[in-house]
Amino acid sequence: MIKEKKRSALIWLIPLVLLVVIYFSFGLSMVSGPSMEPTLHDGETVIIRKALANQYYHRGDIAVIAPSKQADTYLIKRIIAIGGDTVTIQDGKVFVNGKAVNEVYLTQDIFTEGNEEEISVPQGSIYLLGDNREESVDSRELGLFSQDDIFGIILWK
């Protein structure tokens, strides 16, 4: 009888623990605006893996950014460079650490405008660009972002 009660409790406890983990680890968000087209479109719903302390981010990840801890609006941008990298924009192309970034996610007619001087990204910071460069307000105008501003990384659209 006691073993049955323990088994019954486990049957309820396991799904509850899974729900708590999912709630605190993942979220849904809706894209607002054209800055990430053609990758993400206005009104599209995305699944986010919420950020963890000391998480490592990769170039190419699409991040959901809360630029201010009190912000009620989030930005969705692509991580182009991480701490220790250098970024240069020349002749419409983005270079990270002296190498042209292979941006297969962009349409062929995209020309990236920006300052041609080299930008060094300090540790703990990231350089972000929207995929729709003509419509995006990103690190070219707003400067570098702190990794602490990352709310999460988009996993699925």
Describe this structure as you would to a colleague.
With 157 residues, the chain is α+β, with helices and mostly antiparallel strands. Helices cover 18% and strands 32% of the residues. It contains 2 helices and 11 strands, in the order αβββββββββαββ. Strands 1-2-11-3-4-9-10 form a 7-stranded antiparallel beta sheet. Strand 6 and strand 7 (99-100) form a beta hairpin. The N and C termini lie far apart (48 Å).
Q: Nutshell version of this structure?
A:
By secondary structure, this protein is of the alpha+beta class. Helices cover 18% and strands 32% of the residues.
Q: State the low-pLDDT regions, or none.
A: none
* 3D shape: elongated
Q: What is the share of helical residues?
A: 10-25%
Q: Whole-number average pLDDT?
A: 84
Strand content: 25-35%
What is the overall number of helices? 2
Q: Tell me how many strands there are.
A: 11
- Which structural category do the helix and sheet elements fall into? alpha+beta
For the structure shown, list the relevant keywords.
157 residues; alpha+beta; 7-stranded antiparallel β-sheet; 4-stranded antiparallel β-sheet; 11 strands; 18% helix; elongated
